Amino acid sequence: MKKSCFFILSAFLMIFVFGLSMASEEPSHPEIDLIDYDGNEISLESNIPYSPKNTCGECHDYDEITNAYHFQQGRTDAKGNIIVRDDMDSKNPWLMSHGMYGKW
Q: Is 0.70 topped by the overall pTM?
């Protein structure tokens, strides 16, 4: 009984201290301006889509990120054939593949 109480109390204390340290840290990413596909700055209130490549590509390797496993998951089948289709699921037209590719 004493061991389990000690364990629970220790775990709670570790979580509490970790939470305090995370809450006191400054954000790790600086503020950025959103850029559209034409290279123009857009506001947060805008309904114009932002371009991840134009917004993040200046500092981050966009090509490496977009070719990562999780980013491409569902784009191809096991043989490497592209399986993304606009008509993948008629009940959920926003789904373009069985994986994560094309979902939002």
A: no
